[in-house]
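Inputs:
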Amino acid sequence: MEEKKIDEKESLELISQMIQSTKEYMEIGSGNHFIYWGYFTAALSIVIYSVFQFTEWKSCGLLWLLMFVFWIFMEILNHRKHPAVMTYINKVIDHVWYAMGSMFVVTFAVILFISFIYGRYNSLDLMMPLSAIYVGIGVSITGIIIQNKWIAYLPFVGIGLGLYMLTALYLNILPTIYWHLMFGLSFIIMMAIPGHILKRKEKKAC
Amino acid sequence: MLRELDPLLHSQLRLAVVSILMSLDEADFVYLRNKTESTAGNLSVQLDKLSAAGYVSTKRVIEGKKTRTLCRMTSKGKKAFEDYVEALKVYLNVKK
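Outputs:
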């Protein structure tokens, strides 16, 4: 293509051709992120379960704080590589995850603060169900935005698990070590599988 | 009376660039070059013209040892494109 005058009909054809050529990017989200988060969380849940089985360390749940380390690592990776194209859809999805991430940090800070004031750190147990609910909502909104039913509905597994845990805690049912495994499994279902669905779409489009 | 088509947009490469940027929030120089199948030199000149008119904003970012140019439409550019399409519709209706 070069710098040349065109007539009105050619102009209209060119506009529609160019808009069509960008369409392939409209439906593609960042499948890799979902996959990394899904598998990392699942792997960490197995590590925590194993640590408890071998050492009987009761505060092994503190190892979930490694999620923050992974988050920082992912953020550094993201900022190193700017995408060639930013669609409006991707921008909206970015904002959704920014909001979810902020909620996660605020929730953790508030729970930690209250735990510190009352000297009872078992309230940190709330982080697991709330994380499952937040992440589930985030993935589900992503699915709604990109109009993919699987991605929109699979997170209900995580949301359901989160609600079950919250109810159990309210009923004074003590969390067991299996909660960690269930939490990890829910991330496979609500993040890793949607991630693979996105990747497959991406491959088809390219 | 027919409105005059914006001469800045009524050119093949510039119109292609603007059409792409209208459907995206942001795109980098290499992506635009690939999509328009233009040369780097020519694309650069046309981007400068669009930028000078305030239709497109460009931003340079450094990634490792490489510099990348990111382009996006300004609100003035979006308005100009919408006016251009409206004028185009009028032209095509008259010619029918």
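Remarks. Chain A has a mean pLDDT of 88. Chain A touches chain B through 29 residues (CB under 8 Å).
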